[in-house]
Amino acid sequence: MSGWPAAPTEDAFHGPAGEFVTRTAPHTEADPMALLIQFLVAFGVAAGRHAYWPIEASRHHPNEFAVLVGASGKGRKGSAWDHVEAVIAAAEPAFAADALITGLSSGEGLIAQVRDPIDRNDTDASADKRRLVIEPEFAQVMKVLAREGNTLSPVVRNAWDGKRLQTVSRNSPLRATGAHIGIIGHITKDELLRYLAATELANGFFNRFLVIAVQRSKLLPLGGQLSGHDLEHVREQVTGALRHARDDRPLAFTDDAREQWIAIYPQLSAERPGMHGAATARAEAHTARLALIYALLDASHQINRPHLDAALAVWTYAQATSAWVFGDSLGDPTADDIWTLAKDRPDGISRTEVRDLFSRNKKTREIDRALSALEDAGRLTRRSDTDGRGRPAELWIPVRAQVA
After folding, report:
1. Does 101 score more than 60 pLDDT?
2. Which residues contact 184 (CB under 8 A, 6 or more apart)?
3. The pLDDT of residue 338
4. Is the dihedral of CA 29, 240, 40, 49 positive or negative?
5. Chosen domain end from 280, 296, 326
6. 169 within domain boundaries
7. What does 311-348 look like in DSSP terms, one character per residue?
8. What is the per-residue pLDDT across 218-272, written as a single tens digit (0 to 9) for each?
9. For the domain that residue 120 is a member of, what is the CATH number?
């Protein structure tokens, strides 16, 4: 089981985002990573659907999803957001007034926020397709996903992808094109593990979210002393960066950033088993979007090496958070129970011991399926020995690299 993730390198605190965190952190109990990730996501949505990073036929725009995982009431997730909102509101008051929403309960409800006009006389449709969803109780969203017939999951997935949002309904023929949506959720680790269904891991809903561990950074009984002047330079930078981000254009890597991307790409693309692997399966896309956001904050026309280094530092922290949340679980209770028994048995376990683990109440095909899953994940290897009477005996040996 992985412990609390190590703090990110200083690369993560590049540019205006880093200055915001550096100036704000001494005056709040919030985790610096709670400040940083919410600042990056908020700016990326405020920047709109203009600049993008092209890859093959796809365009990655600067909209991102993030889930902050920390103790309820002690993680100071909401306190961090209040500081971010103040800066964004000062830089673009209209965005803060109209584009910040909460209450994800259905796909239709999200589409309605950014819907296209139904006909030429429809004046109620929003011209501004930017929306940043703030969900302080993200566990409620996870519960909604489990309801039969709810359309939230596919709509959210399409929103991250930048595809047209639409549900097939005779009574509510809503459609939204060009939507630019970001999501910030707050949840505890226990809630996440309780309500995250295997379906949402398998279908790609959850791996569209950056998972960020946060905790209270310090005790400030009387609060901080952050003044309006402390963040004046940050507000000016954000205002200018938002103007710069309005240009519709691709941002390409500089030569040194491209070389770094090529070098790190195999590691980002590597498949990993279990729930941790499923939750981090979009490493390349998240890193690219984060690099784009850092570049836009610098009002840059290219993605430079520092922007990519910053993105990699954030992604490394998100990946470590996922390992802390999910550990070595495969998301299969039978396989996980067998692995718990086997990983501390270097000489292996027999099939008889596996059957005894479940008091011989598991069907043979269920045990076979679980053992095969552990073998496919590189956790166990099968070996056939003979018992004292010359009969073959099956042993399952833990792979040393997986135990370490």
Report:
1. yes
2. 38, 41, 42, 65, 66, 67, 68, 81, 132, 133, 134, 135
3. 86
4. positive
5. 326
6. yes
7. HHHHHHHHHHHHHHHHTT--S-HHHHHHHHHHTT-TT-
8. 888 777 788 778 899 999 999 999 999 999 999 999 999 999 999 999 999 998 8
9. 3.40.50
Specify if 2 maps to a domain: no
Are 159 and 175 members of one domain?
Answer: yes
| pLDDT above 90: residue 386 | no
Q: Would you say 160 and 63 are in contact if contact means Cβ atoms under 8 Å apart?
A: yes
Range of the domain at 136: 10-326
Report the alpha-carbon distance of residue 27 to residue 3 in Å, rounded: 27
Q: What is the CATH number of the domain that holds 352?
A: 1.10.10.10
The top-scoring range by mean pLDDT among 217-231, 267-281, 309-323, 367-381 is: 309-323
Same domain, 42 and 71: yes
Start-to-end C-alpha separation, the chain: 10
Q: What are phi and psi of 217, to 5 degrees?
A: -90, -25
- The per-residue pLDDT for 99 is 96
